[in-house]
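Hi there, hope your week has been kind to you so far. For a while now I've been wondering how a particular protein folds. I'm sending you its amino acid sequence along with the backbone structure tokens. Could you read through the record and tell me how the tokens relate to the sequence? Take your time with it, there's no hurry, and the full record follows here.
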Amino acid sequence: MLARFGLIGTAFLVVGGLVVMILAGWALGTVVWLLRRRAPAGPGILPGEVPPGAAPAGNPAPADAGGFAGFTWRTADEPGAQPKRPAT
């Protein structure tokens, strides 16, 4: 491509491709915004509100919440787990 269009031509092709991708992203975002705007307003959650069935911020999720409620990578976070002491 460089041999056919030269350095400046190749640079213009690359920049042109980036501009086309940016415009396509804006167009897609506009379409999604318009479609979501047409949908009837549902029972939205206002900022600061807690959805029904969710735990308030700072509190652990209830055990019966399902999914990954209460999941942790650390065994020290499990109820009744003793912290591991480093080997001496």
The mean pLDDT is 75.
